[in-house]
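Cross-posting from the modeling subforum.

Setting up a comparison between two proteins and wanted a second pair of eyes on the formatting. Protein 1 (sequence, then structure tokens):
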Amino acid sequence: MGGISPHKAAASCAECFAWGVLPGSCCRACYTFRGLHDRGECSACRRVVPVNKGYCRLCWLQALHDAKAAGHTHVSAPFLHAVRHQQLFFARMHRDFYRLPGRERLGKRGRRAAPAPAAAPERPAASWVQLRLPFHSGRDFVGFDRRRHADLTNPALVQARHIAQALAASRGWSRWVAKDVDRALVILLSGHNGDDRLRYTELAPALRLRGLTIERTIDVLDRAGLFHDDKPAAFDAWLDRKLGALPPAIRTTVEAWLRTLRDGGPRTRARNPETAWSYLNAIRPLLLHWSDQHAHLREVTRQDVLDATATLHGSKRHITLSILRSLFRHAKKTGTIFRDPTTRIRPTRVEPTAILPLQPADIHEAINAATTPAYRVAVVLATVHAARSKDILTLRLDDVDIGNRRLVLAGRVRPLDNLTRDTILEWLEQRRTRWPNTANPHLLINRITALETGPVSRVWITRAFWGLTATLERLHTDRQLEEALVHGPDPLHLTAVFGIHENTAIRYAHAARQILEQGAEQHDTGSP
């Protein structure tokens, strides 16, 4: 067992109880499993360990054993639900079994057929390279064999390996990630001539087949100037899927409008891609309805717009008319239509939505949903400091001053209370234990961003609160409303405490004043 002292005594894995000479407190398989999944209570054995879909690795192995005994090749839900015991085993037993004399490893879990034994070929000269063709025909790395094709003296490979070592040291990669990147570079650059750039569509299938990291390898190749991103854009695929049912003339106009929203134009600033997504999702039913009657947007009349929005009310009608106005203005500006059918159609005035405080049960539900230290940090920052989700995911380590009990949130210095301090310390301890060498400067990280320097995604930080009444944004709103209720509906006080815009502060103060007046009226009515 490479990397483990020959004098180390055997022990039991802390998570799957496998017996053997272990590299640490757990076996290599459980170490990998721990890096891919968060801790939780296993639905079968009730232990608090890393779980995948509610079950720990030991229960997954037992379910796999039962499934194979029943003639199945995959684990299904009935086998997981039926786990009532576990068959213990020795560490690395599954891998070492196929290394015994007379045994031949047949592939992962024994499902792949054994390759036909090939005659040992002569190792080619180390100086060979892939010659450059006058046209690009694509490379195929799937059939790469390290014993026959590896050329560790290739200049492009030597340079890329040096870059990978420097990047691993600066990003805090584990030795397993660094080893996977090195294997990927050997596969991709052993026969490289030093001029061509590797394409995503060429390297992704080979690396995905071998279970090697694609993102980290691309980071190295991009720094070496050897990567060309030809991956189809997600925006283009989304457009094809959403606009496929529209007539060609309408589709061309709508697609040009959406691309202008996303990329900008000569006199138009670029918008967030989410703006284009939300705009099309809002009016797509109308476009499909008009497509049954018209073949071009120039055939849409003012009455069609009025009929389409007649059943809408309030903010939904206001938003729909605003999006249609944007579409037809762009079409008229580009000469696609002659007359804007949305001209002089005024939406009704929409009153701001009333801001109401959350119920204690809703807040407790959000607290119970925060089952990990990272989510608990997010809940505390939202409920105590009124932090938005964007402020939480961009918070950096140097923004938290534990010694001086200060917190810099959205550019404003705030005092660090005991609850926030204890919650952050709990998370920092888990972060240090799980990713001791990470170079990511952000406070909250996960298994993906621990190898990078960017923040976590908004989806990751809000996923635990989906479907709840008290989301992170609602908790942020409730905290600001609570401040106005406790200290009085003073917009200047809210602006000074939270640094919000004066219009937003006036809105919160108005909502607090209405709540206080209603409470006073109910108290006067109920008094003798």
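Protein 2 (same layout):
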Amino acid sequence: MKGIGVSPGIAIGRACVIKNNKAEVTGVLLKDEAEIAAHIHQFDNAVSLSVNEIEATKQNTDIVLHEEDIAILDTQIEFISDPQLRDDVVEKITTDKKNVNDALIATIANMVQLFQEMDDEYIKTRAADIQDIGNRILKHLTKSTPGFTQEFKPGTIIIAEDIAPSDTITMDTRNVAGFATQVGSKTSHTAIIAKAKGIPAVVGCGDNLATIKDNDIVILDGATGLVFINPEHQLIEEYTSKKDTYTSNSDKLKQLKDVRSVTTDGIEIKLLANISSADDLEDVFNNGGEGVGLLRTELLFMDRDSFPTEDEQFEFYKKVALQSKGKPVIVRTIDIGGDKQLPYFGLPAEQNPFLGYRAIRICLDRTDIFITQLKAILRASIFGDLKIMLPMISNIQEVREAKSIITQAKQKLLQANVTFNAAIEVGIMIEIPSAAITADILAKEVDFFSIGTNDLCQYTLAVDRMNAKISHLYDPFNPGVLRLINYVIQQAHQHNIHVAMCGEMASDPLATLLLIGMGLTEFSMSATAIPAIKDILINNDTIKAKDIYNKVMAIDNSDSIIQFLQENTV
């Protein structure tokens, strides 16, 4: 079966099927004020026990915690301690007379739905955090036992519908060879933790994964997403050989951390990373990254009951700037709206949120929100090399209006005698076809472009990339998409501005030489993807890249383009 490969490597072993225990609604209503007070007390006690449990996990010397693990645990404490969670549960207990079990299940379900309906894949997968803290609190309410307590046999491949964030941290993975789950994405916690621990993983395998039984022999390819059940001996031998080769190559890639990203003919290629907080920077530098090509700011605004203050935002950006070691950090201004709902903002539901009231459109309409964020970024700019990037730009008027508001933010800081980098660079994301087509116009107004291929591909091909029915039509190697990307790069060079790519295509090894052939010299991707891309570019020259580019641009269909790239990318 085919899933999404999220942590590379080959695993060959026997299945251990994990069944998730679903919380059930009892339907029992409370009778009087005494019961209501008792159930509220039970909730508060369960919350306290849950926080204590997480703190104990952090202090447990028997568990080896990575930075990713600690960040997840800290996030869970924030979620559990959120006053809004308590308010929602208490309201259901007092107003609807629900018992504490049912009130919590309903509240968590609403929160999970809120996160799952968002467009940003990273934020969308944070729904797993919400469900996990709900399960954790429920465990203390019902005094049930935790999930992954068993010891695994050597060579175990864990099969599950999904794996909760807390389970990925606390389970003993010494004998775990791989993970395969029915649901999940490249940014799910199973993916994050599997990468951190170097365990091959495939997620999003679908319902067919449920056919696997305990002790079935499983081959799992964390790069291609392929999962084989009870394969023949010949296939086992083939993948054993692939596993040996992968292990050898992985050891080589680890040695590239301090190797300069330069082609064999001396052209420097900058490899940057996409991050969501300062905690991600250690991983960036450990993988040889040279800065941040995309700092998402949406998480600052999530899981709150009001907008973050200027000071709260300033501290967030300052921390990133200080930990960036003087390397560039491109801060994307808030990208909310439409399908990225904030409960406290009161945005109306939209029939087509991808084309709706969101991102720069909200910022230009609600300048109070925009100026607050800009002032915070500007204040933090003296602590590092921060740059401002505007998302979802579709025309020159939006750029000029946004720059005018940036000027207003600067003037407010000057009036308050606050220091900032007056020459901070301002760029835009090229993710809407109209922006790509008018790149020659837009290049005269900004300091840099960053090509967001995820949305550019979606909008160019009229394909909802979250819709499984038509996902096969989502194709970054479509000649139309490639021509837009090529035009944007050429116009950036002609107008002497920087151009980078921060979409998923930047981390696709098949696209590396093609993009270099187009003239792209800045790539931004997940930190763990950097070594593999660096390995390709340091072993090739721009002459070969340009030859690949010339031949690809003469091909009229993506199937032939992909086949050609597979045969010519080394």
